Amino acid sequence: MRKLTLDNFKIASALFIRQISGTPIPDLFGSTDGKAVGTYIEQAFNHYLRATYDYIPGNAASGIDFPDLNVDLKVTSIRQPQSSSPFRDASQKVYGLGYHLLVFTYEKSDDSTTQTARLNFRDAIFVAQEKTGDYQTTYGLIGVLNRNGNKDDIVVYLEERNLPLD
Q1: Do residues 125 and 107 both lie within one domain?
Q2: Which residues span the domain enclosing 26?
Q3: Where does the chain show beta strands of DSSP type E?
Q4: Domain holding 43: CATH number?
Q5: What pLDDT, in 10s, does the model give residues 29-45?
Q6: From the centroid of its chain, how far is CA 100?
Q7: Rounded to an integer, what distance in angstroms lies between the CA atom of residue 88 and that of residue 9?
Q8: Beta strands 2-3; 53-54: pairing state
Q9: Residue 57: how many CB atoms within 10 A of its CB?
Q10: What are phi and psi of 113, to 5 degrees?
């Protein structure tokens, strides 16, 4: 087996969603629970990867799904996208989460004749860890700096948004 690297992880992600898109999934028929869909896809993706690659899967204690690669997987509906990864503190909003994100977006449909669900994956988006900061916060900070703002201006900007930093 080959070692899982970030490059082949990205390639495998794209191949996986192409393979699973449109596949009948009886376990998800009638489910409106996005968490159930996410859990199913995370498990299916891990199974897919384990067939080819050698890696240590994540667990609840590690907090991210692929700790060796420093990547967390998020699966969300295109109709009602949700963030299940809120920023833990103000520094993450400014500097980023500290890990990469892989986001799968899908559209779900149920087939009552076959009693199966089908997921049509729309995107597999890899977000590098340095790009995981909050867009509005970093955009605003860049604006302060572009207007020759100083440390006091930055402190005011962050405090106005209830984001105190040390």
Answers
A1: yes
A2: 2-133
A3: 2-3, 53-54, 71-77, 100-111, 116-127
A4: 3.40.210
A5: 999 888 899 999 999 99
A6: 8
A7: 26
A8: parallel
A9: 16
A10: -65, -45
